[in-house]
Amino acid sequence: MNEEIKVGDYGIFSDAINTTTKLNTTISNSGTIISECNTILTDDSVFMGPCAESCVQALTTLDVQAKSLIENFNTINKYLQETAIAYQKGDKNAGNTILKSTDKKSIDTSSVKSGSRVANALSKYSDELENAEYATVSENLFTTTTTEYINGQPVKVTHVVINNGSQINGAPANGSYGNGLETSSSAANRLNSSLLINGSHFDYANGTEDLKGGNHVVIVNGQIKHDGTSGGQELLLDSNGNIYNAKGKSAQELVDNGVKYTFSCHSTQVIENGDTSPSYLEGNKYKRNVIGQVAPGEYYIITDTTYNNKLSDTAEYLKGKGCQNAYSLDQGGSVSLVRDDTLINNPSDENGERAVGDFLYFTA
Questions:
Q1: Closest CA to 173 of 192, 200, 210, 211
Q2: Are strands 134-138 and 105-107 parallel, antiparallel or unpaired?
Q3: What is the pLDDT, as a whole number, of residue 311?
Q4: At which of 39, 74, 100 does a domain end?
Q5: Which site in 76, 84, 103, 193 is 20 to 30 Å from 95, CA atoms measured?
């Protein structure tokens, strides 16, 4: 911000900036009180029973909403200040110019080809794009992220449309399988991804996939790392960008059929060929990353922001979006959602973002 131009020099902008600053202070103070109440109720829940648990869930939702409001008002405040300075310098189109250059939205439709998947998404999901918290549009990529609610629980809903199956891929930590762990934001930077989430359940010792349950096959970049026959709990990603499973198929059969990456998924499948019943086999509420496919090139990712969501609720939501297949990836403190190289969800590990074994990501 140019210090030679004072806030008081541009009239109405000063009032708006002061108002958003005061609102943010008030919301921040309220958020502190909410967090303190939540801590007290959590500590006392063993004595107070279900009533306290319901209160904790409600306060957790309020806490997430408060943080979202603070983030939004910070963005508005910054936008007002930059716009005011630009107007002061005589830029009458300042508002439009600065809005397009915000770090949350990068929209360039100049190279989008008519009739492509991205072009169709721009037409079909124009309202979604306008109302999204985050958005990226380029020649071969359309993606938005918005906070929504599933059965009262706040989640990040990310919608992705790509023109080519090569734009969705998997990658092991640090560039090679079994080469330790890496944070999602580090991997996103290394891979130059537009969008990235954590992947398989993993071994803390070396980052290899944890093959408990029905996971018996590991394929990385089209190469077999663990030979065997699929147990049906692997997310298979093929060269056309399809996600599916194939219980009973050998690793070599999968490679021959174009599978380029597998992710171990200890939870039951969320949706199988439009059927959500598998998700009801896992009744626990938890924090998850779930990816669903509508059709080749179109996906939804649900990133839980609390530990209070049921897999079946997510499944029904994704089915409502048209998803035919969906899978739950590694859970709990591993859950991460990175746009470009910025983590945008709230990690739940005590020390912040957790290093994990591999990743599912999209490129432009």
A1: 200
A2: parallel
A3: 96
A4: 100
A5: 193
